[in-house]
Write a structure and sequence with these properties.
Strands 1-3-2 form a three-stranded antiparallel β-sheet. About 25% of the residues lie in helices and about 5% in strands. The longest helix has 18 residues, at about 40-60. The protein is α+β, with helices and mostly antiparallel strands. The chain has a domain at about 40-115.
Length: about 130
């Protein structure tokens, strides 16, 4: 399993995990598309934003291996802002190649592209205009 050195381990000040430490002995957890509903908590939306910021900062528009990126966190973006970069795609492989769909990511997370490194992560800060 490729470990993405320098990638943040979690969203600062929270328990939202971005990477895993060790490969699962039974194989990689399957990446699935999770639906993001309008009533999601603000902190969950912040975790999505922080993870997208980390992906953009670390990989940009280039394809990247899943490696030690957390399957649960990837699943919140998979099929929309993060898409397969290979065909066929194996959602249960640590070697699976992914990429950011920049057009969709800009629509869903304009803050990532406008703020650069200054992503808000204060849980008390209002995020009323966040996309769902």
């Amino acid at each position: 399993m490729l470990k993405h050195r320098g990638f943040p381990g979690r969203l600062s000040g929270t328990d939202f995990q971005f990477v895993i430490r060790h490969a699962n002995k039974e194989g990689a957890t399957r990446i699935v598309r999770r639906e993001r509903h309008a009533d999601r908590k603000r902190v969950d939306r912040m975790a999505d934003l922080g993870f997208m910021q980390a992906l953009w900062d670390h990989f940009g528009a280039e394809p990247f291996a899943r490696g030690n990126l957390d399957a649960g966190r990837l699943s919140w973006l998979f099929g929309r802002e993060v898409v397969p970069a290979e065909d066929p795609f194996d959602p249960e492989s640590y070697d699976a190649m992914l990429k950011i769909d920049v057009r969709r990511a800009r629509i869903s997370f304009p803050e990532v592209f406008e703020l650069g490194d200054e992503v808000p992560h204060d849980p008390d800060e209002p995020f009323d205009d966040w996309p769902v």
